[in-house]
Specification:
Helix content: 25-40%
Structural class: alpha+beta
Shape: rod-shaped
Strand content: 35-45%
Strand order of the largest sheet: 1-2-3-4-5
Length: 176
């Protein structure tokens, strides 16, 4: 009897099963990668938003604490949310009096300051992602306590936005 040598190989069915399994594994990998990228972008946006909020609130708190309580005025710029502009005067360590304005204009939070009576304001951007800022007195009978509320947004993956609402309650104005 003569033996016929059969070539060992894969059949078409085995090849198709292998390709199908590779396709499923590839799809799972792509979904996992997409999720990881989205998570990374959202986390980065949240961190930037928190840092921006903290920095802006810290600057506003330090300035408000140095303000002269009798000079505080809360109003709004034309076309902006109510209670979104704060004006006051403060005395520096050198003894000069400075005028300070903190206000929202569109999505930008500005800090303007100048020496009392000077013609030109020095303008500084505190943040360019503000959605809402509000200044208000926590107690109507105590003009030395002021609250500041700030909402900031940041774009994340797929044109979505993340929002952060932070507030400073009862910022004490030391100079009466």
């Amino acid at each position: 009897m003569v033996k016929i040598n059969r070539c060992k190989g894969t059949s078409l069915v085995e090849l198709m099963m292998g390709i199908t399994i590779m396709g499923v594994v590839g799809m799972v990998f792509m979904q996992a990668q997409r999720y990881i990228v989205r998570f990374t972008l959202v986390t980065k946006a949240k961190q930037q938003t928190v840092q921006e909020s903290r920095t802006a609130l810290m600057v506003m708190q330090k300035l408000v604490q140095q303000g002269q309580a009798s000079t505080f005025e809360i109003d709004q710029s034309t076309g902006q949310p109510p209670y979104s502009r704060l004006y006051f005067k403060m005395t520096t360590a050198e003894g000069t009096v400075k005028e300070v304005k903190i206000y929202q204009l569109s999505k930008i939070l500005y800090l303007d300051y100048r020496d009392e009576g000077a013609a030109n304001w020095n303008e500084k951007v505190l943040t360019s992602n503000v959605r809402f800022v509000s200044f208000f007195y926590t107690k109507t009978d105590d003009s030395r306590l002021l609250s500041i509320s700030l909402t900031i947004s940041q774009k994340t993956a797929e044109n979505k936005e993340t929002f952060l609402q932070m507030a400073l309650q009862k910022v004490r104005i030391y100079n009466t």
